TrEMBL record:
This is Crp/Fnr family transcriptional regulator. Residues 148-220 form the HTH crp-type domain. Transmembrane segments: none annotated. Keywords: DNA-binding, Transcription, Transcription regulation. The keyword DNA-binding applies. The lineage of its organism: Bacteria, Pseudomonadati, Pseudomonadota, Alphaproteobacteria, Acetobacterales. GO terms for cellular component: cytosol.
Length: 248
């Protein structure tokens, strides 16, 4: 990916696309394009302060840590997403970890350049919006994991981590990298159940599966199933198996 394409991505979707042109130009003027190999950590929980990152290609996993558990994969950031703004706004250390899930690229606003930028109150206000976006994702994450029926919970997490639902807007995706093991961890379900659930969804025409990747074809149908919506669609896809225990 070259610099021009990276800028085109972040100016066409996500947080930066909604900011004033003067702010966009000021940020991009001091940002650098970085490349990551699969498995590279951008930063880990409790790392010292660092800069802001905007995803331009590939995907980055968000790993959460508490005093009692972790790191645990909780979400996947795809092109257009920004993360790591805390230290620029005064945070002392990283509150979560982020790792490349595949060969990926990101624009990086270095810490000192970012702190210089937020001397302007309007720039500080703009960057603080990333935290609000992150909080919304955290709320959605908790809401997804409170779905008691596991196949619906898997479906809700699938919509969120593929980017098929953002800001309550549903849209099909192209092929995105996602393994069944990763989805199982994020949905708190067994890999076997994830495998069977995705096979049902593919048989219904709602998604297309590939090797360590998939494409969402009918996000409306998936949302109807995940959230038990009553919009004239079937409550579940046809399946050769149906557990008598709805919690499975």
């Amino acid at each position: 990916m070259d610099r021009a394409e990276a800028e085109r991505i972040v100016l066409s979707k996500g947080w930066l696309a909604g900011q004033a042109p003067a702010f966009q130009a000021a940020l991009l003027r001091v940002a650098e394009l970085l490349r990551f190999q699969k498995g590279d950590w951008v930063f880990r929980f409790a790392d010292p302060p660092g800069g802001l990152y905007g995803v331009t290609a590939g995907s980055f996993g968000v790993y959460i840590v508490t005093p009692h558990a972790g790191p645990d994969l909780s979400h996947i950031l795809r092109p257009g997403w920004w993360f790591g703004q805390g230290p620029i706004l005064g945070g002392r250390q990283r509150l979560f970890g982020t790792r490349a899930m595949e060969a990926s690229c990101a624009l990086h606003l270095p810490l000192e350049a970012g702190r210089e930028l937020v001397r302007d109150p309007e720039a500080a206000r703009a960057i603080s919006q990333i935290g609000q976006i992150g909080m919304q994702v955290a709320v959605e994450n908790v809401s997804d994991l409170m779905i008691r029926r596991a196949d619906r919970r898997i479906c809700a997490v699938l919509l969120r981590v593929t980017g098929a639902i953002e800001d309550a807007v549903l849209r099909p995706t192209g092929e995105v990298r996602l393994t069944q093991s990763e989805l199982a961890r994020m949905a708190n379900a067994s890999r076997d159940l994830v495998n069977r659930t995705l096979a049902r969804f593919e048989a219904a025409g709602w998604l297309r599966l590939g090797y360590n990747k998939l494409a969402i074809l009918d996000p409306e149908a998936l949302a109807d199933f995940a959230y038990a919506r009553k919009n004239g669609r079937p409550a579940a896809p046809p399946a050769p198996w149906t557990s008598s225990r709805p919690g499975l």
